[in-house]
Amino acid sequence: MTEPQYITSRDNPLLVRLRKLAKDGAGYRRAGQVWIEGEHLCAALRQRGGAALQAVVNEDAWDRQAVRELATWAQRVALVPAALFKGFSGLESPAPMGFVIDAPAAPALLPQAATVVLDRLQDAGNVGSILRSAAAFGVSQVLALKGTAALWSPKVLRAGMGAHFGLRLIEGLEEDALAALQVPLVATSSHAGTLLPAAPLPQPCAWVLGHEGQGVAAALLARCGLLARIPQPGGEESLNVAAAAAVCLYESARRA
């Protein structure tokens, strides 16, 4: 069993690093490390065969067998007083533990994989929810264009609920990188295109999801071979992009 290190100083280098990661959503790109908080995310990482460099545990939770078992799976364990844990927790009620992991290297783009393309989505909750839907409905690859919320930020991780660890995630792409895809691009729209139930959806395809306010950029829209519109008999102007993604990805999975 990994013997824990007790940390009592807020100036400890590990805690200083965690506070920086918690405050800066894209900080992992410079630090080369990601902070994942909560038993659910930590268990999802372990289940998917990932590796944890460091477990950080709220000392008040150390007596819980499940927490102790999960924490000691990491290479190192640190116990931290509850007051210090709050300093780097992103939750209103801090979780009992978290892991520090290496920031994943970007995998190679798979030209023929079912894909989601994120075009400048700003809201971390939307991005994480879309990753969760992608994983649930069998999409293996998510490509985030420049201007999209950082995929491994704490808020996106929390909304993704572990989906990150089962997806190929590539971020910071220029639009021209999509030329490598060999599957058709399908865009969503709230006011134009073929109604989704009747749309001839390619299998597989790349669903293109645009900015919450501006939608898919015009140049990217021109690359898409199909524009699909979700029926909204209730009369709302549009769906939230994460809700629209779930509907579209379900429809693709249903037809596969």
Attribute tags:
256 residues; alpha/beta; Alpha/beta knot; 2 domains; seven-stranded parallel β-sheet; five-stranded mixed β-sheet; 29% helix
Uncertain residue ranges? none
> What is the topology, as strand order, of the major beta sheet?
8-7-6-11-9-12-10
Major sheet attributes = 7 strands, parallel
Helix fraction bin: 25-40%
Shape, please? elongated
| Cα gyration radius (Å) | 20 Å
Strand content: 15-25%
CATH topology call of the largest domain: Alpha/beta knot
Number of domains: 2
CATH homologous superfamily descriptor of the largest domain = SPOUT methyltransferase, trefoil knot domain
How would you sum up this structure, described in words?
With 256 residues, this protein is of the alpha/beta class. The protein has 2 domains: 5-102, Ribosomal protein L30/S12 (60s Ribosomal Protein L30, Chain: A, 2-Layer Sandwich); 115-255, Alpha/beta knot (3-Layer(aba) Sandwich), CATH 3.40.1280.10. Helix content is 29%, strand content 21%. It is built from 9 helices and 12 strands. The chain has helices at residues 13-23, 28-31, 39-47, 65-71, 82-85, 124-136, 154-160, 218-221, 241-255; strands at residues 5-6, 33-37, 54-58, 76-80, 97-102, 115-119, 141-145, 168-173, 185-189, 194-195, 206-210, 226-229. The strands form 2 sheets. Strands 8-7-6-11-9-12-10 form a 7-stranded parallel β-sheet, with helices on one face. Helix 6 runs parallel beside helix 7 and helix 6 (124-136) packs parallel to helix 9 (241-255). It is elongated, with a radius of gyration of 20 Å. It starts with a strand and ends with a helix.
